[in-house]
Specification:
Number of helices: 7
Order of helices and strands: EHHEHEHEHHEEH
Strand content: 15-25%
Bound molecules: farnesyl diphosphate
Largest sheet: 6 strands, parallel
Structural class: alpha/beta
Number of strands: 6
Radius of gyration: 19 Å
Distance between the termini: 55 Å
Length: about 240
Amino acid sequence: MTNNVKKVDERLQHIAFIMDGNGRWATARNMPREYGHKNGARVFREITEYCHKIGIKYLTVYAFSTENWKRPKREVNAIMKLLDEYLDRQRPENASIRFIGDVSMLDPKIVEKINKMAEETAGHEYVLNVAMNYGSRAELVTAFNKLLAQGKGEVTEQDINSALYTGDCPDPDLIVRTGGDLRISNFLLWQAAYSELYFTDTLWPDMTSDDVDRAVDAFYSRKRRFGGLDKEPEKKD
Ligand code: FPP
């Protein structure tokens, strides 16, 4: 672990993580997949703290997708139990914790704790979005229906932005996917329009602050043009 913390600047406000590889990490140790999620949850807490330390203002993590219900019941239950433990034990003093996704499909007791946590942690500058039962297409459908219900006949990009779960957050500057796969998997499709993408073979439970530093360094080595040019071409007389 690095002792010298290198702070980010205003160019990197929002990082999002696709936390992949828990199952493979456990299987490699001849352990059940649930063991991988348990360690994944530990690393999630560590990375959350580290990102705050380096000055990240918004952090979004993909914890459970709308497709993850297809997994064996035992595995789904294990992830829900980790979430429940997190809600019971964690009260970060420095972060506003929000849950994005259709949480109404979760156990009502968990929904109650989610709402309580969101209320109790509101107002901090550092925002942590935990995506639970999240799918980006479903998020967009929900947003469009919300706008229709408001009677909007024609919508602007700003309308769509504010109707999303991530409404008041800036778009992610950097999206990191661990676990070696090179895809976005229905995560922040709208918000990722100009995000820098970083893929690493590191499995999520092996992720350290040094890996975060590497992703951050990669981000700063890229030129973000947002569809424009680096600089105005020289005018010829
Ligand atoms: C993907 O790895 C990971 C998940 C589907 C679950 C992620 C959950 C956590 C990190 C715990 C979340 C905890 C809280 C407190 C919300 P995978 O299982 O798809 O791994 P694999 O690709 O190796 O099979």
